[in-house]
Amino acid sequence: EKAGHRHFMAKEIHEQPQTLSDVIAAYVDGDRIAPPVAYDFAATDRIQMVACGTAHIACQVAKYWFEQLARLPVEVDIASEYRYREGPVGAETTALFVSQSGETADTLAALRYAKGKARAVVSVVNVAESSIARDSDVAFPILAGVEIGVASTKAFVNQLGVLLALAIHAARQRGEIDAAREADLVATFRLLPGILAQALATEPRAEELAARLAEASDILFLGRGTMYPMAHEGALKLKEISYIHAEAYASGELKHGPIALVDRTLPVVVFAPMDALFEKTVSNMQEVMAREGQVLLVTDADGAAQASDGVWEVLVMPRVDPVFAPLVYAVPAQLLAYHTAVHKGTDVDQPRNLAKSVTVE
Ligand code: M6R
């Protein structure tokens, strides 16, 4: 049932090119986005996204997409905070809940708080017959299939895939992009399963690097733009299954405190594809190196050619349009965590103290 893999998590990581193809099959029609259920993003003035854990990180990535592509303001909340804060919910607000299981207690309670106040309660869920899906006005399926590993992998990538499809769709509905730009984005979207497969081919190198990360007691993850939430995903996956203390910071926040942690014993994983923010991230990375921090730079061939000098290690990812980079950089986040955990001998599929679905508060 693990299809030759040692753990369900490994199997699920390797399923991602296929499961992302299933999102494309369901959300793309020719050269446009055509979601399986209708929702009019032109009739809303903001989105409140609410979720827990990895699903919350998917929302943080999606904020960049909806704001940049569709010019639609997005607030992102952790469900356990949102449900008790009793904040205002505008009548034109879309309340959007993301959950793999569709049964997470805090997310469900947050949904019930927003219901009747928001313009609509929308969800992005894996389990179609779940409570969250049933209680939503509109439920977008992520089609990842059953996910068994406690650490979410393919569900996260499919959450990203669906949220990106919806952001492109919203941009078109709101007149922020034209048909030609939509067709361009869709053409790249269709290449993504193949690019994920290329990213997965870096596994032997990730495994090598993980053996070194396994010796650390603390690890920092840095990134800018969408790579900032991806740094959070890298840190969350790592602590969840390897039990190594990890933290994520926006690269630009480093000098506001966390740089005090840096010394020669600290690995610092930097997610930096070649994009408009690359040089800014590199200059933060150099600040780490000046304090003898051990930088593991995760970038593409262009980034590696420009910025490998003096870094501890480089992990080279395939090139991708920056809009789509979070889906690709999910792979090294997962592989580094997975192999670090395997190296340490922890229980990868059933990490201590954790449950797959958190149905109590
Ligand atoms: O089923 P949900 O998506 O609502 O679950 C939310 C979190 O419990 C979940 O993403 C958790 O953070 C994962 N174990 C992370 O890998």
UniProtKB/TrEMBL annotation:
GO terms for cellular component: cytosol. Its EC number is 2.6.1.16. Keywords: Aminotransferase, Cytoplasm, Glutamine amidotransferase, Repeat, Transferase. It is an enzyme of class 2 (transferase). GO terms for molecular function: carbohydrate derivative binding; glutamine-fructose-6-phosphate transaminase (isomerizing) activity. Residues 37-176, 209-351 form the SIS domain. Catalyzes the first step in hexosamine metabolism, converting fructose-6P into glucosamine-6P using glutamine as a nitrogen source. This is Glutamine--fructose-6-phosphate aminotransferase [isomerizing]. It comes from Jannaschia rubra. The chain holds residues 241 to 601 of 601 of the full protein.
